[in-house]
Amino acid sequence: NAGVTQTPKFQVLKTGQSMTLQCAQDMNHNSMYWYRQDPGMGLRLIYYSASEGTTDKGEVPNGYNVSRLNKREFSLRLESAAPSQTSVYFCASSEARKGVGGHSNQPQHFGDGTRLSIL
Amino acid sequence: AQSVTQLGSHVSVSEGALVLLRCNYSSSVPPYLFWYVQYPNQGLQLLLKYTSAATLVKGINGFEAEFKKSETSFHLTKPSAHMSDAAEYFCAVCRATSNTGKLIFGQGTTLQVKP
Fold first, then answer.
1. How confident is the model at residue B96 (pLDDT cuts 50, 70, 90)?
2. Of the partner residues B42, B52, B101, the one whose CB lies closest to the CB of residue A100
3. Ordered DSSP codes for B60-79
4. Chain B residues with CB inside 8 Å of A42's CB?
5. How far is A94 from chain B (nearest CA, A)?
6. In this predicted model, what pLDDT tens digit does every residue of A49-104 receive, in sequence order?
7. N or C: which end of chain A has fewer CB within 10 A?
8. How far is CA B60 from the centre of its chain?
């Protein structure tokens, strides 16, 4: 059972180049998420998709776009990479069922990350 | 708005000693809380979660956490540290909006275990 698979694992780009980070999950989860992880800042949400066909901005969406291709796949695109986007990117998924008080009590499952360097 | 604060970016303990990693949250509504662990060059793995069923939550690898509403805390403990516990630990709270499952993460605490 692969869980959440991210490709590529490593990438080096030049400023201004574009690229797409791929993410796929095989757990039939409704919700998917993209985070970036920077030292001392924890994980910050870039975009999320609560269900197939919907996407919404998170805390730090500027410079990124996403596509929820189908229930399994959620891609993150950098149209014109900048050095400030050097980071480790994580994709996650969850069942996101509504619990008491309207919250989701299902944990997120994470991929192993994509380490992106922009020169 | 919800937020999470982890006290101490680095914690160092001796093997066999008590592990205590601190997490305080801010939330205007009852939260759901999570602890995740991240080993080097890996993604985050769920250690345990609090979803209002019981205030003392037991997780994997001998870790547990206690939800204290009066202190707005959810500290992570383990009675006896093992070398394999060396990793980065993240506390997270579920945002009180829709049922999207969005999480707010703390800054992380790196646990060092000395022989």
1. very low
2. B52
3. GGG-EEEEETTTTEEEEEES
4. 90, 105-108
5. 7
6. 988 888 999 989 999 999 998 999 999 999 999 999 999 999 999 886 665 555 55
7. N
8. 12
CB contact B90 to A (< 8 Å): yes
Q: What is the per-residue pLDDT for A100?
A: 55
Are the beta carbons of A99 and B32 separated by less than 8 Å? Answer: yes
Q: What is the CA radius of gyration of chain A?
A: 14
For residue B1, the model assigns a pLDDT of 72
Could you give the 3-state DSSP secondary structure of residue B86? Answer: coil
What distance lies between CA B81 and its chain's CA centroid?
A: 15
* Residues within 8 A of B (CB atoms), A 11-50 only: 31, 33, 40-45, 48, 50
Which of A44, A45, A101 has the CB atom closest to B29's CB atom? A101
Beta-strand ranges (E) seen in A31-113 are 31-37, 43-49, 56-57, 64-68, 74-78, 87-94, 109-110
CB A46 within 8 A of CB A34: yes
Q: Which of B42, B99, B108 sits opposite A97 (nearest CB)?
A: B99
